[in-house]
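**User:** Everyone, produce a chain:

**Assistant:**
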Amino acid sequence: MLIIRLINCLYGYILFTASGGFPERFVNLLSRMSIKAWDIRPHKGVIHGKCRARDYKKLCRAAKKSGMSIQIKKKKGLPFFIKKYRKRLGFFLSVPMFLIFIFVMSGRIWSINFSGNERLSEEYLRQLLRENGISEGIKQSDITASDTESAILSSCDELSWIALNIDGSVLNVEVRESIESLDPLDYTHPCHIVASKDGFLKTLETYEGTKIAKINSAVTKGQLLISGVIEAKDKSITFCHAKGYAAAETTDQLSFEVKKRRNLLFISDYEFRASPEIFNIIIPLGLLPSDENVVISNSEYRLTVNGRRLPVACHKTSLISFQKRSVTLSDKEALLLLMSAMHEKLYSLSKSCEILDCRTVLSNTKDSFKATVNLKLVESIGIESEILTD
């Protein structure tokens, strides 16, 4: 039945109605004149049916002999479709071109997927593949998986294993990252723990070595806190790598200055440009300016289908033009910039030590706003000092 429907669509057929006259004679004439008609059925005195397009003239003669009137309801099939769009040459050319495109591109890589990477980004892995001649659009026959895998592993120490598998038009890349090895601390060479700056010792924890300094006592820069020399009960001496933690109350002074006369950049123009990309070939639409006062930023919008990247993208280029202007800040504006710089520095400092006290002295001159910050801190002051032995 399906084959018959397909044949009818290829030859074309007509849906018709016949009314009046002698229906019985009309049906007999269809059979006698070998007219290919089907789905003949009466409904409220009107005969409905279908016939081949080439038999329509015979159908009209049969209707005339039986005194019936024929009316065409619909024309279906390939001949009528071609006739309807015969003046649209582009439509008929696009069909074979599309088939040729599909045939050619079915043998190329459309998308590259990665799995197993955690530390390494997909962009880094794509760059490794590009360096070995593999990217979207490459012929599948040009990919030698074993050679590419060996070349990537020899050039990238971050990978311990890689496998390339082709699935249709998709290249699946599976990787295993190398285990990060931490550099072991060197505890073999003997050393002391000394103070890195002046202060008032608050905490001293000795893990290995001989405790020398006393808590709640003043220490100076370079003073010995934990010795790497251990004296046994029999007066014998051994050297070790001293380990410990020392924290002291220290003072520090920070200086900040903001000039009131400043050269600032103002945006004078803003422009967007779009460049299409097909199979890693970017088609630039216009030349980029070489002016140093123009900042160029690029962003990529990749076409994806069901989560898979396709080798089609649009690159958006933003051109921002700046003009330098010399301006004089008001006292309020200069103070805001000064406070912002102070806050950023103190916030960074608070991550590594405890701030006990902070006193700020501001000074306003004709050309600048200055600040001097006096700090009282509790910070780690213990550093290693190597013991030189013969």
User: Anything to note?
Assistant: The chain has five domains: 2-83, 92-181, 191-249, 255-260+328-377, 263-327. DSSP finds eight helices and 22 strands in the chain.
